[in-house]
């Protein structure tokens, strides 16, 4: 490649990467302003809006609810997803294909349509506008994230290792605990993290299935933006960005991003 | 000391037969090698014995008892895999100790047995290393130690040396054989390297498309093959069409090759008058002042030997000679065949 | 000659070493096998139950709901009717919204493709330093759509940085009204969905053996020729997957149009949610959702049919 072409390509790439990062940078920067208004670039630097955020009772309740829903979702989905991924590994042929497609379905179907179906269905079985209904919906939508990541890790596992373990006298449980689990731990953690973050950030599902008297953080933020337009919202958003960055770092440390 | 008998073993994969009718046996302490080309069913047989696969039919008896109902983990067989299958997240010591740990054996006994096992395969001092920091040969030693430390009733090895270079292969082959003999373990060994099979087994089973074509000592397989297939798979061999003139003993015959006549050993009960094949190893061929005239087609120098092909009565015959003997392509030579390296078999067995 | 004959023909001194065991009857108990087969399905049961009950049933329920009569004081009535389909397909308000949604989907998909391909090419070249760039592409996925839209809300506002830059450059005198427009929605969605396009394309590009490019080079083809005739077609499976994903996701997107879009001529997703949550007209809402799904399905099928030959030739 000639030098000008290379420079041009580099410039285009930089622009696109910049475009991807821009809104995140703007949100974090705006949350650090010392001024009264949400603006970019920020006027002076301070953490006062973070203090305001952590003092806002409604937002705090929402944060706690979001964390709780995400935590329950993560545990449930990681266990169910791991079991399903183990089943997927043990099956072959059409059964394996069908199981995989079925488990990916919540990811392939538009979130809006799934939420609408759940809105009707949960109402009809008496779980409309309840926390447990919302919890189930989160589990359904995040299950594919856990499954895909764990199934991918299992695919990397040499079946001979399990054969070796069994031939050495280990029971199925021993083999799972001592061989399979340690070797796919990275995939499980990644899946769990994705499930957690997806649940924590989920908007449309929570919006349609909002339990009575319970707002998740994205919903509270949405409400907040509708009437208040101060940097508290940016601080709230920045908190979830920081959470995401922590997630990326943890995943990279454990498994490496390129294995996704 | 374990005795094994396998009878009528069958296995298909999705309608495709992989094992048709496999019968084998191993006396206590015997090393049995399964030899054959790729896809002939060696691994499938071994995996049925190990318990990784359930056969469709037939039976496997160990010390007179069928093991088909015994779950894999209760069979107490040591398995060595082609790709070693070492647990990557465990050290050498942990790998070797694994089979003892799942048997809930005390720590002190584990430590001493692991140390003894590592010493046996020459790995003392490498216990704390992770598998990926070891060379291929070292990894295979760990795999061997791991299989042996549980005092297996049976040792199963599937091409354990396939990933090693020639030098290491020889070394490891000797090690495996030495340990197997010392501990008196009955073993099944899969390979498609005929030299490996010949050199280190008590008996060899040559497999052909899901069946055992011949099961006998290396010497018998080599010198008295039941078919051209077996002959070709156990080393270089030429097959000459000959006419059977007369039978002397049940397994001694006079055959006619062109104008010449000679006495050769052969399969029992062949009837004179029909056409048969004479299997001739290259080392049976000597050149001299008298004999059957033949034309040298090609000759190549291999250092320790000189090998090539002559045309004799219109048929190709491979030879091997001393490298210093004068053999020139295109010239006429006189061939004598040593009956000790020849074997007569019926045309059907071709 | 069978194996049994062969072993019988062994020299006698070896035969003596094998004690004759009990008669060999080719029998095989299958006890061990049933257990192995039931295991996987047992493990998959919780997932299957969850999905059948809370994904399958809700979609069935949505179809049933679309056939219900409207309720009075309740979300839906007790009778059944096709009326809502006539309404959804006959009312220009809904048809216009559907058209705008599909158009939005097309624009967003094209925009994503344009921005994603260079990135995917860059990432596919691998190398350790590219980890950093992977992180850049993946990190927005981990930040909620809401937060990302929020960034655009700040950037595009009347006093926001974009207007400031434009004014600073002297390109405009008065701040532009950028927010609450269809353009803002498209921009927001493109940003949201770029990772969904990048990852499948980068995956497809990584599967192309590097020697193909070298073969093209070796045959004397120029860079661009090689790109057009080798790299681009072979990455098509990734393009196809990304295109379908982004199109479906953007047509059905709700948050971004709600936050960045205007009040007026709006999108079908917004109208659907309004019917459901604002007017409590569940049957009509269900019908609109299904019409949207059907329209998306038709477009995707059309796309698949149009690109079938290319996809077949470049698969794997
Ligand atoms: N799990 C399986 N599914 C389907 N077919 C199989 C399976 N395992 C083996 N086969 C088939 O069974 C036949 C015998 O295979 P096997 O692995 O036993 O051969 P092999 O003698 O070990 O060959 P190699 O020397 O290449 O290892 C082959 O045709 C193979 O394709
Ligand atoms: Mg094999």
How would you describe this structure to a colleague?
- The complex is a heterotrimer of chains A (260), B (350) and C (316).
- By secondary structure, chain A is mainly α.
- Helix content of chain A is 79%, strand content 0%.
- Chain A is built from 11 helices and no strands.
- The two termini of chain A are 30 Å apart.
- With 350 residues, chain B is α+β, with helices and mostly antiparallel strands.
- Chain B contains 8 helices and 19 strands.
- Chain B has helices at 42-50, 92-101, 107-120, 136-148, 166-183, 194-199, 218-223, 228-233, and strands at residues 4-13, 16-26, 31-35, 57-62, 65-66, 77-80, 154-158, 186-191, 203-208, 211-216, 238-247, 252-257, 260-265, 275-280, 285-301, 306-312, 315-321, 332-337, 342-346.
- Chain C has one domain: Orthogonal Bundle (MetI-like fold), CATH 1.10.3720.
- Chain C is built from 16 helices and no strands.
- The two termini of chain C are 46 Å apart.
- At the A-C interface, α1, α3, α4, α5 and α6 of A face α3, α5, α6, α7 and α9 of C.
- Magnesium ion (MG) is lined by residues 42-43 of chain B.
Task: List descriptors.
heterotrimer; B: 350 residues; alpha+beta; Rossmann fold; 2 domains; five-stranded antiparallel beta sheet; 8 helices; 19 strands; C: 316 residues; mainly alpha; MetI-like fold; 16 helices; globular; disordered N terminus; binds adenosine-5'-triphosphate; binds magnesium ion
List cofactors, ions and other ligands: adenosine-5'-triphosphate, magnesium ion
Mean pLDDT of chain B: 90
Q: How much is the radius of gyration of chain A in Å? A: 22 Å
CATH superfamily of chain A: MetI-like
Largest sheet of chain B: 6 strands, mixed
Instruction: List low-confidence stretches of chain A.
Output: none
Concise description?
With 260 residues, chain A is mainly alpha-helical. Helices cover 79% and strands 0% of the residues of chain A. Chain A is globular, with a radius of gyration of 22 Å.
Topology of helices and strands:
The complex is a heterotrimer of chains A (260), B (350) and C (316).
Chain A: H1 3-31, H2 48-55, H3 57-90, H4 93-108, H5 111-124, H6 131-155, H7 159-167, H8 172-201, H9 204-208, H10 217-227, H11 231-254
Helix pairs in contact in A: 1-11, 2-11, 3-4, 3-6, 3-8, 3-10, 4-6, 6-8, 7-8, 8-11
Chain B: E1 4-13, E2 16-26, E3 31-35, H1 42-50, E4 57-62, E5 65-66, E6 77-80, H2 92-101, H3 107-120, H4 136-148, E7 154-158, H5 166-183, E8 186-191, H6 194-199, E9 203-208, E10 211-216, H7 218-223, H8 228-233, E11 238-247, E12 252-257, E13 260-265, E14 275-280, E15 285-301, E16 306-312, E17 315-321, E18 332-337, E19 342-346
Parallel strand pairs in B: 3-8, 3-9, 6-7, 7-8
Antiparallel strand pairs in B: 1-2, 1-4, 4-5, 9-10, 11-12, 11-14, 12-13, 14-19, 15-16, 15-18, 16-17
Helix pairs in contact in B: 2-3, 2-4, 3-4, 4-5
Chain C: H1 3-8, H2 12-15, H3 31-66, H4 83-90, H5 92-124, H6 130-142, H7 145-156, H8 161-168, H9 182-207, H10 210-218, H11 223-234, H12 236-251, H13 255-260, H14 268-278, H15 282-306, H16 308-314
The complex binds adenosine-5'-triphosphate (ATP) and magnesium ion (MG).
């Amino acid at each position: 490649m000639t030098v000008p072409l290379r420079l041009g390509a580099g410039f285009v790439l930089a622009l696109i990467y910049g475009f991807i990062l821009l809104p995140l940078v703007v949100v974090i920067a705006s949350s650090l302003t010392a001024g009264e208004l949400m603006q970019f670039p920020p006027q002076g630097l301070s953490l006062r809006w973070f203090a305001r955020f952590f003092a806002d009772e409604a937002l705090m309740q929402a944060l706690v609810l979001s964390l709780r829903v995400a935590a329950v979702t993560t545990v449930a989905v990681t266990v169910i997803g791991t079991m399903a991924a183990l089943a997927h590994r043990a099956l072959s042929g059409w059964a394996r294909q069908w199981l995989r497609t079925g488990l990916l379905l919540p990811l392939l179907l538009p979130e809006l349509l799934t939420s609408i179906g759940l809105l009707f269905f949960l109402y009809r079985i008496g779980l409309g506008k309840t926390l447990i209904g919302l919890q189930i919906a989160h589990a359904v939508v995040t299950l594919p994230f856990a499954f895909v990541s764990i199934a991918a890790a299992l695919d990397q596992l040499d079946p001979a290792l399990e054969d070796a373990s069994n031939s050495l006298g280990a029971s199925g449980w021993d083999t799972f605990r001592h061989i399979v689990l340690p070797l796919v731990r990275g995939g499980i953690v990644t899946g769990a993290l994705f499930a957690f973050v997806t649940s924590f950030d989920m908007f449309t599902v929570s919006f349609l299935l909002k339990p009575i008297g319970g707002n998740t953080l994205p919903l509270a933020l949405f409400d907040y933006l509708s009437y208040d337009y101060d940097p508290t919202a940016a601080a709230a958003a920045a908190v979830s960005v920081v959470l995401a960055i922590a997630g990326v770092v943890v995943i990279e440390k454990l498994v490496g991003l390129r294995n996704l | 000391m374990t005795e094994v008998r396998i009878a009528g073993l069958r296995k298909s994969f999705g309608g495709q037969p992989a094992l048709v009718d496999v019968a084998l046996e191993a006396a206590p302490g015997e090393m049995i090698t399964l030899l054959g080309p790729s896809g002939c069913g060696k691994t499938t047989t071994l995996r049925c014995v190990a318990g990784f696969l359930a056969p469709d039919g037939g039976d496997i008896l160990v010390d007179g008892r069928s093991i088909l109902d015994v779950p894999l983990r209760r069979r107490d067989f040591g398995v060595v895999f082609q790709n070693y299958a070492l647990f990557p997240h465990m050290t050498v010591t942990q790998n070797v100790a694994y089979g003892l740990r799942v048997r809930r054996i005390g720590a002190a006994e584990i430590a001493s047995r692991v140390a003894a096992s590592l010493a046996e395969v020459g790995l003392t001092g490498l216990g704390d290393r992770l598998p990926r920091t070891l060379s291929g040969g070292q990894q295979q030693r760990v795999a061997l130690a791991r299989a042996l430390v549980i005092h297996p009733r049976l040792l199963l090895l599937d091409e354990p040396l396939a990933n090693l270079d020639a030098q290491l292969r020889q070394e490891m082959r000797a090690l495996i054989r030495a340990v197997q003999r010392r501990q008196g373990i009955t073993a099944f060994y899969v390979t498609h390297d005929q030299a490996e099979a010949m050199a280190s087994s008590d008996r060899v089973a040559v497999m052909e498309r899901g069946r055992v074509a011949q099961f006998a000592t290396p010497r018998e397989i080599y010198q008295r093959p039941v078919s051209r297939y077996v002959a070709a798979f156990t080393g270089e061999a030429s097959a000459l069409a000959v006419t059977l003139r007369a039978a002397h003993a049940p397994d001694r015959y006079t055959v006619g090759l062109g104008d010449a006549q000679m006495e050769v050993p052969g399969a029992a009960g062949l009837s004179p008058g029909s056409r048969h094949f004479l299997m001739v190893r290259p080392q049976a061929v000597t050149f001299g002042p008298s004999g059957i005239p033949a034309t040298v087609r090609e000759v190549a120098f291999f250092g320790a030997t000189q090998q090539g092909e002559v045309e004799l009565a219109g048929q190709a015959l491979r030879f091997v000679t001393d490298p210093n003997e004068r053999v020139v392509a295109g010239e006429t030579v006189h061939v004598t065949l040593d009956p000790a390296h020849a074997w007569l078999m019926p045309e059907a067995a071709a | 000659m069978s194996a049994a004959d062969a072993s019988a023909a062994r020299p006698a001194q070896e035969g003596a070493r094998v004690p004759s065991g009990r008669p060999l009857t080719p029998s095989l108990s299958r006890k061990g096998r049933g257990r192995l087969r039931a295991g996987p399905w047992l493990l998959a049961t919780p997932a299957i139950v969850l999905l059948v009950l809370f994904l399958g049933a809700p979609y069935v329920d949505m179809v049933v709901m679309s056939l219900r009569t409207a309720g009075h004081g309740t979300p839906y009535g007790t009778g059944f009717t096709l009326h809502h389909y006539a309404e959804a397909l006959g009312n220009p308000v809904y048809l216009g919204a559907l058209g705008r949604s599909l158009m939005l989907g097309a624009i967003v998909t094209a925009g994503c493709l344009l921005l994603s391909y260079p990135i995917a090419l860059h990432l596919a070249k691998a190398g350790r330093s590219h980890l950093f760039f992977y992180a850049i592409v993946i990190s927005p996925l981990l930040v909620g759509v809401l937060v990302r839209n929020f960034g655009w809300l700040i950037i595009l506002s009347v006093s926001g940085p974009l207007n400031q830059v434009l004014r600073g450059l002297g390109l405009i005198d008065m701040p532009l009204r950028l927010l609450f427009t269809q353009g803002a929605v498209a921009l927001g969605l493109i940003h949201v969905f770029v990772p969904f396009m990048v990852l499948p394309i980068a995956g497809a590009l990584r599967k192309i053996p590097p020697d193909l490019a070298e073969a093209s080079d070796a045959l004397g083809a120029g860079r661009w020729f090689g790109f057009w005739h080798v790299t681009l077609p072979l990455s098509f499976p990734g393009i196809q997957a990304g295109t379908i994903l982004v199109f479906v996701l953007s047509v059905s997107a709700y948050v971004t149009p709600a936050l960045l879009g205007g009040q007026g001529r709006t999108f079908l997703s917004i109208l659907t949610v309004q019917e459901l949550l604002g007017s409590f007209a569940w049957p009509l809402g269900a019908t609109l959702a299904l019409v949207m799904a059907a329209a998306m399905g038709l477009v995707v099928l059309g796309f698949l049919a149009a690109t079938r030959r290319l996809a077949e030739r470049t698969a794997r």
